[in-house]
């Protein structure tokens, strides 16, 4: 359990996936460029088993933006795309929602 004060530190925003490429030597990861409003972020996501690259382009997703960056396979992941379930279904929002909109 976390307190409400701790939860308020979590920052989630709407992001639009602009680019997807495979990560060499990583059989599960894609490298994504995601527009989160005021900037674009590079994220690594274990989506390769569940989505084709072309299915991801243009999707409006939920991004955890204040997660500490992590280096993987020579790339820095600057956040996390949120997904749910055994089949890793991306958490998405309506197309009309502006990139960078804060989720509360």
Give a structural overview:
- It is a single chain.
- The chain has 104 residues and is mainly β.
- It has one domain: OB fold (Dihydrolipoamide Acetyltransferase, E2P).
- Helices cover 8% and strands 40% of the residues.
- It contains 2 helices and 10 strands.
- It has helices at 4-7, 53-56, and strands at residues 12-22, 30-35, 40-45, 60-64, 70-72, 75-77, 80-81, 83-84, 89-90, 102-103.
- Strands 1, 2, 3, 4, 7 and 10 form a 6-stranded antiparallel beta sheet that branches. Strands 5-6 form a two-stranded antiparallel sheet. A two-stranded antiparallel sheet has the order 8-9.
- β5 (70-72) and β6 form a beta hairpin.
- The longest helix is centred in the first third of the chain and has 4 residues, at 4-7.
- The protein is globular and about 40 Å long.
- The model has no long low-confidence stretch (mean pLDDT 95).
The structural domain count equals 1
CATH uppermost class: Mainly Beta
Oligomerization: single chain
The CATH superfamily name is Nucleic acid-binding proteins
Overall average residue pLDDT: 95
Q: What is the number of helices?
A: 2
Helix/strand order, N-terminal first: HEEEHEEEEEEE
> What is the approximate shape?
globular
- Distance between the first and last residues' Cα: 19 Å
Percentage of residues assigned to helices: under 10%
Rg, Å, rounded = 14 Å
| Class by SSE composition | mainly beta
Main sheet overview:
6 strands, antiparallel
Unreliable stretches (pLDDT < 50, length at least 5) are: none
Please indicate the percent range of residues in DSSP E strands (runs of 2 or more): 35-45%
Task: Please give the CATH architecture.
Answer: Beta Barrel
